[in-house]
Design a protein that fits this description.
The protein is α+β, with helices and mostly antiparallel strands. 39% of the residues lie in helices and 11% in strands. The structure holds guanosine-5'-triphosphate and magnesium ion.
Length: 581
């Protein structure tokens, strides 16, 4: 869905430190640029969930006076925070201080009396604010202003990247422009909470939990909203000891398998969302997929939603990525630029197919960072070794144990790249530089080295394994093999075919070469020539200029080989290291 991009939103925060979160004790957004949060994943989830339960989503006229709107709602209790945004209409998210206020508001809300159409009555926290007369409208200067939920346009991004000081600065800009804002994060949790209200019509004790890039710190504005229906409360065995000679059980319907149970549950929910769910449109039931799901658009929030059930392992994978994204600030910058790069070069797509996915790309970045010397990220085995008894977690027979307290993980001692570049500078300069530039300076070098690493990886025989943090022999013949972190017999990139992998390798090699050439090669600011990441990512903006920099693959490969001092042979396939070094 299209949301209006407002360059200077009021009450809007890019990273969780602005008006919307001021004084509300909010957890930092997954996209926060502040110091990495040391909160555990489940603490953040609980805080966000609780915030969402105190919130309502209101469709209002875009001429509404912000002051009058807030005064009207304050009748029900103090408001913690609020913001406006535009999707298919103008909307407000209002978070009250207490949940009672939401109940009070709902008690004074009525089902619309319609004329020619008939309403299907449903009480939810998605409301419509109807002006009673002209006095509710605002003068131009006091109109409510909308916050931004859109990634930058190509043109805007092009301008921002071209006017950056350095490639490091470009990486910084990319992350800042694409990361989820505080408001966008709130809206994601609120949307899950609203869907939970709908699902609760069937399963009163259910929880709808967001997972995937909305919560794993790697989300980009515009990414889909993955959610799953958690029925653990409904399934839970009663904690009350049963007295007497008998045991009482609920009568339930039995079906032949878990998969069929999942399909049945999703089928009724899909129907219900389609027929009754306020704001839910374009519902598709994709029940024969490996992981059955219901896909729909939540029109009011603008999110494309994927609803699954029984997906605890995916939530655990999100927790794992959250830990990696929070441990070291370089990780998010690198993942963001690799994801943007892959999207810009059509290596990834929103349509399912033989392409590499963002999840696989993230696993590759994590694996690459585990290979540095000393490693920037710990292996999954190390995260497990630091876990205590309380962290133990077995899901469907898979050991999903992880250390939850991030403070127990030793920060990386990796400064290798920086060390090499520093030896020429005086001590004081080194200190200042270290303080202000450590993260982005390394990110630039790391991006180049990521491309070089995977441009030369022996995909034909090796598997990527973040559990042990080292290459392993491939257990099967899939072109790209990335071991599923928790279900170790599975390959997360099973869908990728040889030609897509080859495109990835070719483009990684070209990009490594391109960034190598870009070192210190920033044109004068007045030239407005695309350079660095602008030239690498936005070739469609100024194709003629990009073409000048782009060389045919074969020539690039040979140049790349020539810069590798230990290279002895050449290669044009994905057999990587054996061929190139
Ligand atoms: P976006 O492209 O920004 O949506 O990234 P994403 O991480 O949300 O990916 P996606 O929506 O495709 O999948 C959501 C989540 O499902 C991922 O974050 C993973 O936790 C999980 N997931 C996706 N694909 C796989 C897979 O092939 N194997 C496993 N084990 N989990 C997967
Ligand atoms: Mg997703």
């Amino acid at each position: 869905a299209e949301l209006r991009r407002d360059e200077q939103p009021s009450g809007s925060v890019e990273t969780g430190d602005g008006a919307a979160s001021r004084g509300c004790g909010a957890a930092p957004a997954p996209g926060s640029k502040d110091k990495p949060s040391k909160k555990t994943f489940s603490e953040v989830q609980e805080e966000r969930r609780e915030q969402a339960q105190r919130s309502v989503l209101i469709h209002c006229p875009n001429t509404v006076s912000e002051k009058k709107f807030l005064k009207y709602l304050s009748q029900h209790g103090p408001i913690h925070t609020h913001f406006f945004y535009e999707s298919f209409g103008f909307y407000a998210v209002v978070e009250f201080c207490q949940k009672d206020s939401v109940d009070s508001l709902l008690n004074r809300t009525q089902t619309p009396a319609t004329g020619t159409e008939a309403a299907i009555p449903f009480r939810s926290r998605f409301l419509y604010l109807k002006p009673k007369g002209p006095s509710s409208h605002a003068a131009k200067q006091s109109l409510a202003r909308s916050s931004n939920h859109l990634p930058p346009s190509k043109r805007k991004l092009f301008e921002l990247l071209c006017s950056a000081e350095s490639v490091d600065d470009q990486l910084n800009t990319l992350l800042k422009e694409f990361q989820l804002t505080e408001e966008n994060t709130r809206l994601r949790y609120l949307t899950c909470s609203l869907i939970e209200d709908i699902a609760a019509a069937y399963f009163p004790e259910c929880t709808i939990r967001p997972f995937g890039s909305s919560v794993n710190t790697f989300g980009k504005l515009g990414c889909d909203l993955d959610m799953f229906l958690d029925l653990d409360e409904t399934r839970r065995l009663s904690t009350q000891k049963s007295r007497g000679n008998f045991l009482m059980e609920f009568q339930v319907k039995n079906v032949p398998s878990e998969r069929i149970a999942t399909q049945k549950i999703l089928s009724v929910l899909g129907e219900f969302l389609d027929h009754v769910g306020p704001g839910c449109v374009g519902v598709q039931k994709i029940l024969n997929a490996r992981c059955p799901l219901v896909r729909f658009s939540h029109q009011a929030s603008g999110f494309q939603c994927d609803l699954t059930t029984n997906n605890r392992i995916a939530l655990k994978s999100s927790e794992l990525l959250y830990i990696y994204g929070t441990l070291d600030t370089r990780v998010r910058a690198l993942v963001c630029s690799v994801r943007c790069w892959a999207r810009a070069l059509s290596l990834t797509s929103s349509i399912p197919g033989a392409w590499i996915t963002n999840f696989s790309l993230t696993m590759m970045v994590i694996f690459f960072l585990q290979q540095r010397s000393p490693p920037i990220l710990p292996t999954l085995d190390t995260l497990r070794a630091s876990a205590d008894e309380e962290d133990k977690c077995i899901i469907e027979g898979n050991n999903c144990t992880l250390v939850r307290d991030l403070n127990k993980i030793k920060p990386s001692e990796n400064t290798e790249t920086l060390g090499k570049c520093f030896s020429l500078f005086p001590f004081q300069f080194k200190q200042t530089f270290l303080l202000f530039s450590l993260f982005y300076f390394l990110a630039e070098l790391l991006l180049k080295e990521f491309f070089e690493y995977f441009g030369n990886f022996a995909f034909n025989k090796n598997s990527i394994n973040i559990r042990q943090g080292r290459e392993q022999n491939k257990p099967d013949s899939s072109p790209l093999h990335i071991q599923n972190p928790f279900e170790t017999s599975l390959n997360v990139s099973k869908n990728v075919n040889q030609s897509q992998l080859q495109r990835f390798v070719d483009l990684a090699r070209e990009s490594a070469w391109f960034l190598q050439q870009e070192d210190g090669d920033r044109p004068s600011p007045s030239s407005r020539q695309p350079w660095g990441l602008a030239a690498l990512l936005l070739q469609t903006v100024a194709p003629s200029k990009r073409v000048q920099k782009k060389l045919p693959s074969e020539r690039i490969k040979s140049l790349l080989e020539s810069v590798k001092s230990n290279s002895t042979q050449s290669s044009t396939n994905t057999s990587g290291k054996q061929a190139l070094s």
